Amino acid sequence: MSDDQWIYAGQAGEGEVVSGAWLLELFRNGAIDGDTRVRRVDGDEWASLIERLPELDPPAAPPPIKGAWTDAKPHPWRRYLARMCDLTVVGSITWGLVGLIAYLVTPEAADRFFGSLDGPLGRISDILLTLAVVIPGTALMIGLTGLSIGKWLFGIKVVRPNGRPIGLGAAFKREVLVWVRGWGLGVPFVSLYTLIGSYRHLSDKGVSVWDEGEDRVVLHRPMNALQITLMVLGIPLLIAVRLGLVALDRMS
């Protein structure tokens, strides 16, 4: 069965060619169910997954491979912490590059711009802009590797059903959808509403609003010793970077 090539039908239409082994893994992780329509690449008629693959109900599932990305269950808080890590780290790097270029090209305009980000209203503007400027860098990492800095630390991978990266275009579109439908553009109160709504959607349906109906899956590292170690390192790193940014802001 693992040597056969299959096509499955998702909500967005006909999916990509995948191996029988990967199809079985998607079923076990809950990414697809027994009613999903599938067929072999060699021209079989469409049928339900259960009808085509009776071996999908084995006596006992084999144990997951140690360290493999085998967990497709929703983990809202891991995803949120990964996103906050990306905002902090990628945002700091991006703003650093923007500031370097701006001061090299037009120092006076750079002073006026960064000065406008002081004060209560300026800090709100800073948050709004940071949520937007991290999109290209985060999309680049996810599109090429399925990972970002935060996703690697918190054990999250965004890939196609065949395990390949989703590509730059799909990653950029996904990040824009997260910005709009997840963060609510960062607008106060609107952002709180969209965050709560996206959390409930992920918890109830097992898929994010921005991934629903798309030809991709979100996988997680099992909560093993490696993942626990990375999270133990990741959370203090996130706090340290945030405190460092606050200290730099007060010194400037």
Automatic annotation (TrEMBL):
<dbReference type="InterPro" id="IPR051791">
    <property type="entry name" value="Pra-immunoreactive"/>
</dbReference>
<keyword id="KW-0812">Transmembrane</keyword>
<keyword id="KW-1133">Transmembrane helix</keyword>
<feature type="transmembrane region" description="Helical">
    <location>
        <begin position="127"/>
        <end position="155"/>
    </location>
</feature>
<feature type="transmembrane region" description="Helical">
    <location>
        <begin position="176"/>
        <end position="196"/>
    </location>
</feature>
<dbReference type="InterPro" id="IPR010432">
    <property type="entry name" value="RDD"/>
</dbReference>
<dbReference type="GO" id="GO:0005886">
    <property type="term" value="C:plasma membrane"/>
</dbReference>
<feature type="transmembrane region" description="Helical">
    <location>
        <begin position="225"/>
        <end position="248"/>
    </location>
</feature>
<keyword id="KW-1003">Cell membrane</keyword>
<feature type="domain" description="RDD">
    <location>
        <begin position="74"/>
        <end position="195"/>
    </location>
</feature>
<dbReference type="Pfam" id="PF06271">
    <property type="entry name" value="RDD"/>
</dbReference>
<keyword id="KW-0472">Membrane</keyword>
<protein>
    <submittedName>
        <fullName>RDD family protein</fullName>
    </submittedName>
</protein>
<feature type="transmembrane region" description="Helical">
    <location>
        <begin position="87"/>
        <end position="107"/>
    </location>
</feature>
